[in-house]
Amino acid sequence: MDNQAKKTVVIIGAGPAGLTAAFELLKSDKHLKPIIFEASDCLGGIAKTVNYRGNRMDMGGHRFFSKSDRIMQWWQNIMPIQNLNEGQEISNPPLRDGDVKNDKVLLIRKRLSRIFFLKKFFDYPIALNSNTIYNLGLVRMFKIVLSYLTVKIFPIKREKSLEDFFINRFGRELYLTFFKDYTEKLWGVPCSEISPEWGAQRIKGLSISKAVFHYLKQIISGKSSLSQKNVETSLIGQFLYPKFGPGQMWDEVSDIVKERGGEIYLNHEVVGLKSSENKIIEVTVKNIQTGEIKSQAGDYFFSTMPVKELITALNPAAPVEVSDVARGLVYRDFITVGLLLSELKIKNKTNLKTTNNLIPDNWIYIQEPEVKIGRLQIFNNWSPYLVKDQKTVWMGLEYFCNEGDELWQKSDSDFISFAIDELVKINVIEKAKVLDSTIVRVKKAYPALFGSYDRFNIIRNFVDQFENLFLIGRNGMHKYNNQDHSMLTAMVAVENIINDIKTKDNIWAVNAEQDYHESAKS
């Protein structure tokens, strides 16, 4: 028997990146023991599931889809895909009540997201089809086509902002119609002040030509593979989803981590990181419930905490220049109002069959300028098991704000009333149909690519000097990663430890669109 002493790996944060790191460490034969400290009272980070009186909420909507075969297989190893009988639709055949063995499954879900604008539904991404032409009118469509052709002939040679990024791919008129207002709702600043890197990470290679090609291909083939490896992320037609929401996946992973010897402490906030020379040697942890302070030494340290807080917590303090950049990093906060209704005022006019003829969307991008709501989730359509009573409609009204601003400072009851009135204003619901409501606030949900972000390399160069410190995940790297990208950063970091790789470049390279950055520099 190998009596080699175990090495301790301290992981800050129990979101997808932190839990994936712990899982991968325990899979290795390197005697690595993960200890996770999570500041909140739940697992999964923003990918948690909130249970309100038997109705479950997904914070922001988490499609379990990736172009990485490794990630797709990883998820299925934790929770297998629900078996379908031959000929069954993938929409979600009901499972038998009380059939426990079928609870821990991934459902195959059809994806539909649309834009709500001019009190009408538009395809998302925008498709140049008869529905779009009819809804916009011939005059506006002519302007859109003309501006798109113009930018194809005379593109913006050097993309300095997200506005330039959008215009080059969609034309100025389509950008002003469908991208500008929503994006500025999301970030709270003009698109001209946001780095084009946001588009490289989130929109990637999508353009009108690709959207049209994909649309025609789907019509001709009528098929949609679950892997969809050659499909732009914004165009995927189906995805996997845990029966009881994304938090179910991370609850399962945490159970495995603990069974294999890992430790997870909720309500424990890391408030300090002590370093010596080029290594982190211990963290200081505060028990939020008791106020108790303790130290935890370690051999390796993984951080998913916001970079701004990480730099502040370092002891000795970071150099002045590094601290200045960290203070200037910007985050966008997030509020979801859960709304339970007997029915919606807006009706399903698609050819898709749904329970109670509910509109079939997973989420709806609200483009109407007279309201502040950014997106609207229909939880019934993510998984029917998120909803306690199938006769009701369970929705999430998503708002983007900054901690301390006018929206954030509203009391819970005032905010819920405000949100209900907004949906009434745009004719989506009737107030009398509201049965129940709740509200959830999420701080630092979106790391922003403005503020001092253009000098982020100063922070990166500094923290990379700590050879046993690995920054992973969305907030840990201040990158607008999807769930799968956050997981991949954790996997690569663990491989670096196992293979004694000193560079961090391969971690930072995850979700970096090299083709885009090379063309942007030319």
Report a brief summary of the structure.
The protein has 19 helices and 20 strands. It has 522 residues and is α/β, with parallel strands linked by helices.
Structure description:
The strands form five sheets. The chain has a seven-stranded mixed beta sheet with strand order 7-6-16-17-18-15-19. Residues 85-100, 212-228, 231-235 and 514-522 have low confidence and may be disordered. The radius of gyration is 23 Å and the shape is globular. The protein has helices at residues 16-27, 69-78, 130-136, 138-153, 162-170, 172-187, 197-202, 208-221, 246-259, 307-313, 320-327, 379-382, 406-409, 412-425, 456-463, 474-477, 483-498, 505-508, 514-521, and strands at residues 7-12, 32-37, 49-52, 55-58, 106-110, 113-117, 120-123, 238-242, 263-265, 268-276, 279-287, 293-297, 300-303, 314-315, 329-341, 363-366, 375-378, 393-401, 434-451, 469-471. It has 522 residues and is of the alpha/beta class. Among the domains are: 7-45 and 248-328 and 452-521, FAD/NAD(P)-binding domain, CATH 3.50.50.60; 127-220, no CATH class. It contains 19 helices and 20 strands.
